[in-house]
Specification:
elongated, single chain, mainly alpha
Length: about 170
């Protein structure tokens, strides 16, 4: 390969690699880890019509949606289905003051800043990014949530899309 071809091909390879990383489908689409206790969103959010904010109390006030303390679960489960093995385990965690160590399903790299409250206050429905969680027995990631996904959404909605919007 001559010097001129090498000078041209290195930037092209770099651009191609960056484009692949930004716009390629996420390997996390379909990611649905087993949780310490099976939490059926279909029963809670779907059948029982519980609002997401009952458990994810900070979603409209902070950058993070928040994971509920076990006490929130016990508001109902002290009386509802309290003899089932999972709720007996949940009750033990509560009485022993042990938090449930949930595994994040929708996770962004540390270099990405995402603020839930800014999106909620502008009317973005949770299902836009998270899918129809009210129909999920086990939560899974349905969108790539990669940079291309977010940039396209920002463009379609005339939202800021300069680098500092998400990278700080």
């Amino acid at each position: 390969m001559n010097q001129r071809a090498l000078k041209i091909s290195v930037p092209l390879i770099t651009v191609a690699a960056v484009a692949f990383l930004i716009f390629s489908p996420s390997k996390y689409v379909g990611y649905s880890p087993d949780q310490p206790i099976p939490f059926n969103h279909k029963i809670h959010a779907g059948d029982n019509k519980m609002d997401c904010r009952y458990c994810h109390t900070t979603v409209d006030k902070s950058a993070h949606a928040g994971i509920p303390p076990t006490a929130t679960c016990m508001n109902c489960h002290a009386m509802v289905a309290n003899k089932t093995p999972d709720v007996v385990w949940l009750t033990k965690q509560f009485t022993d003051n042990k938090p449930i160590e949930w595994i994040k399903v929708h996770d962004q790299p540390d270099f990405v800043y995402f603020n839930h409250s800014r999106h909620i206050s502008r009317g973005v429905d949770c299902s836009h990014c998270h899918g129809n969680v009210a129909e999920m027995v086990k939560v899974k990631q349905v969108e790539s949530l990669n940079m291309g996904y977010c940039v396209n959404c920002h463009r379609e909605n005339n939202a800021p899309n300069d680098c500092s919007t998400c990278h700080r």
